[in-house]
Design a protein that fits this description.
This protein is of the alpha/beta class. It has helices spanning about 10-25, 25-40, 105, 110-120, 140-145, 165-175, 190-195, 205, and strands at about 50-55, 70-75, 95-100, 120-135, 175-185, 215-220, 245-250, 255-260.
Length: about 270
């Protein structure tokens, strides 16, 4: 069962609290550290005037961005600052240069609806950066096992884990082109096997970028279709093809009209 963040209900607040608590655990801190390392490589190349962060936890993730005006959208009504329903954002059309979605789609009941709303607010040539859990990974396999046990309602295994290819299809339908997809964390979700160093700075994550990493970061750019001028289709026939040149001829005091073809008016 997914969790409806869009309503910002009391049950949603409980789910958010559960996820935030997990990110404060040893395993969650390792994931967050790895994701921050990935964002530190990707965000410096994205420019503009306004960045909006949407996350299921409280840490700031956009420090590496060169954008000056950065906004954190809170989903929890108990938090200070700007609180918004992610399906009804308080932004005008085409007003955000970079939208950072951190595991928001993994735990929302209507991820496509949220993505559509974020796309609406993103400027043409602006970017959406999505961080999510990959179901095609060791963590995805672990989630499938846990879902059949009494731990299925515990974060993060109660999330949707959206397949990257499916997410890319949604973005393409919203006129976004995929710039890149980065993967990381290839070890099982057991804290003692992960170590103290994030997976992205060392090891296979940095060198091979295999699409079976347990977390991914997708960067997509909004493209607006070019306006093509419509050229008129001219007929092959001349507009006055049925007319011919005529000259006047005087005969017996009367003026007659003679065609160039030699035929006289009767």
């Amino acid at each position: 069962m997914h969790n409806d963040f869009s309503a910002l209900s009391k049950s949603s607040q409980w789910v958010l609290q559960d996820i935030r608590s997990w990110f404060a655990s040893d395993l969650g801190r390792h994931v967050l550290k790895t994701e921050l390392a990935m964002l530190e490589q990707l965000l410096p190349g994205l420019f503009g005037y306004h960045l909006a962060q949407f996350s299921v936890q409280d840490s700031v993730l956009h420090d590496a961005s060169p954008i000056q005006n950065k906004i954190i959208i809170n989903l929890d009504t108990t938090k200070a600052g700007l609180v918004s329903n992610p399906t009804q954002l308080p932004f005008a059309n085409d007003s955000i240069d970079v939208a950072l979605l951190h595991h928001l789609l993994d735990f929302a009941e209507s991820p496509q609806k949220i993505l559509r709303e974020v796309a609406r607010a993103t400027l043409p040539m602006g970017h959406i950066v999505i961080v999510g859990f990959n179901p095609m990974s060791l963590w995805g396999a672990w989630r499938s096992i846990v879902r059949s046990t009494r731990y299925k309602s515990i974060a993060p295994w109660n999330g949707a884990f959206i397949r990257p290819g499916r997410l890319m299809d949604w973005l393409n339908l919203l006129d976004f082109k995929i710039d890149r997809a980065q993967y990381s964390i290839y070890r099982p979700p057991v804290s003692q096997y992960l170590g103290d160093v994030n997976d992205y700075s060392h090891g296979v994550s940095r060198t091979l970028n295999l699409p079976i990493g347990s977390v991914y970061v997708i960067v997509a750019r909004k493209h607006v279709g070019a306006v093509h001028s419509i050229k008129p289709v001219w007929s092959r026939h001349q507009a006055f093809g049925r007319l011919s040149a005529v000259r006047s001829v005087k005969h017996d005091g009367l003026t007659k009209v003679e065609h160039d073809s030699g035929q006289h008016e009767r």
